[in-house]
Write a structure and sequence with these properties.
single chain, about 525 residues, alpha+beta, 7-stranded antiparallel beta sheet, 5-stranded antiparallel beta sheet, 8 helices
Length: about 525
Amino acid sequence: MIMKSKLYLLAATWLVFSDAQTQAGDTNSTASATLAAEEAQFAPGTIIPLILMDEIPLTDAIRNLTRQASLNFILDPKVQFGQPGPDGKPMPQPSVTLRWNNVTAQQALQSLLAAYGLQIVEDPNNKIARITTKDPTALPPLKSKIIQLEYASPTNVLQSLQTLFQDKRSKVVADIRTSQLVVLATEQELLSVDELIHRLDTATKQVLIEARLIETSMNPSTKKGIDWSGTLNEQNLSFGNNASKSSSASSGTDGILAGSGLPKMLFDTSKGFNPSTAFLNADGVNAALSFLNKNAEAKVLSTPRAVTLDNETASISVTRASPIFKNTAGTQGSPGGSEVTYTNLGVILSVTPRIAANNQVNLRVVPEVSRVFETVSKKVNDLLSQADTYDIRKIETHVMIPSGNTLVLGGLVQDDIRQNNTKVPLLGDIPGLGRAFRTDSKSRQKSNLIIFITPTIIEETDFQPTETKFLKSAPPLKDGVEEDWSSWDSGKPKEWKKAKTPSAAGEEDPKFAPVPAH
């Protein structure tokens, strides 16, 4: 290998040196030229360890680099370097001295031509390149390139790439279906595009969110005593002509207690119990005896798990849809109706993780707990309307914890204590006997929610493939359901003649014969 390299170096030196002597027209010229490379020929795109030129004419340097790049070229007559002049002698051309390491022949050729105001124009039909002069006022040519993205979304990378373009003609278009980018830009801009995509198009890490939600509630209540509200609260008394007489007559009955709404106590000042002159009408005596304790306790436990990308929100909901009715009054020619919408009530947990340095996880946590509190009635324009009121408890916090550690959120406590007392004045204050004329009640509704959140950064080794033969196996011909339905349960007539089965006859059922491959 060493001998071959030396022979090549000597041969290359002699050839270039001979050309230099011929062009100079002087056999005693002391000009020297060397070209060093590991091999005489390189595949296109191969990195050449060393390219060395020392006082080589420009056209010879172009010829050697095009040969190394396997490029078919023709020198434009507009290029005067080395062309015969009016006097028939070759016109002078500059000498090239350079040393390049670890570049391709194509890169070296383009750099050499750019240094002397030349460029390559390739014919797409015959793949023959023409080396011609470059217009100093012309804009750099645009080149197109299709870039396949592996991980990033085209819409996310698109805005970042547009900041690299300095030429107003350059642009980039995203193909969402294939996750590709079509870039039209100058060569220098394409190099910046490749570098930026190399940094942005990386696999996004994922975070496992494990949550444990524990909600406890207790609702004890007690009510003791005798409630006289039915007797003493807004007792209706009437004295005068018996207003219920018309009601008795309309119902076709004759009697004091006949019909609904008749007086429960009647006194006639002139004729005794006669409703035609005067009466005293009262609601009567009603009392409610209460002596009861109630207690209700509940514990709700939920342990959801979710995996989300870095800096993406994971939403965990344990809710119940509560209906909301919207009634519309009817108008002339249009009947009224009602519309039902739903709102989710319960526990809604939103977690947005962002992976920081040293396996730290920055969490944005938003827990929300909601429930129906009570129904409120309001009268507007002589129309009684009812609507539900909701209790909403919500916390928004930002924390940073190590991966695999647990964050505890508490304090979502609601304690509703109510006491009610009802008594008959004076009678309810009598010691001992007063208990028969008063009612004491109290209730308590307490709920507490504790949230445990554990974020864990997922590594590539955490994923394990699951072996399955689902796609390779044929679907079952029978699911066994028909066998559970006998002739006693089935509505189909029983087939007394036993059908011929493939197993009994030893033949293949043509109904289930495999389809031949095309």
